[in-house]
């Protein structure tokens, strides 16, 4: 993989894809959000800075597609607390950088910074950190093979994280 791709059109496509993902999380439309992932896609939120392995260390979240589907079903279940107390959230993404790019496949690694504020049960919570998306080019366009969410305070004590960031 080359270090980066300076093609403005591809960069815009990647940014638009990240913004689309954020819009699905903001609504929330978890059905469409999950469709952005490959069948082998994973979502990882490490519990400590610079954690390299989600399998042999504690993580705040480490989900594959099956677990994402289970969380989605739980979130919309008629008895879910989210039905009584609506979740509202807003994602802000910036400093998007294509850090790796494979000319042959169109696959790339993208890092970006984010802020996510959400309102739930009359309380606002703010998260901030860095995203690392491993994106693959498919016949349907870009898809997420792996998303890593590094919170700036990952090692802090957190209440329940009820949404994907």
UniProtKB/TrEMBL annotation:
<dbReference type="InterPro" id="IPR000391">
    <property type="entry name" value="Rng_hydr_dOase-bsu"/>
</dbReference>
<dbReference type="InterPro" id="IPR032710">
    <property type="entry name" value="NTF2-like_dom_sf"/>
</dbReference>
<dbReference type="Pfam" id="PF00866">
    <property type="entry name" value="Ring_hydroxyl_B"/>
</dbReference>
<keyword id="KW-0560">Oxidoreductase</keyword>
<comment type="similarity">
    <text>Belongs to the bacterial ring-hydroxylating dioxygenase beta subunit family.</text>
</comment>
<dbReference type="GO" id="GO:0051213">
    <property type="term" value="F:dioxygenase activity"/>
</dbReference>
<dbReference type="GO" id="GO:0019380">
    <property type="term" value="P:3-phenylpropionate catabolic process"/>
</dbReference>
<keyword id="KW-0058">Aromatic hydrocarbons catabolism</keyword>
<keyword id="KW-0223">Dioxygenase</keyword>
<protein>
    <submittedName>
        <fullName>Aromatic-ring-hydroxylating dioxygenase subunit beta</fullName>
        <ecNumber>1.14.-.-</ecNumber>
    </submittedName>
</protein>
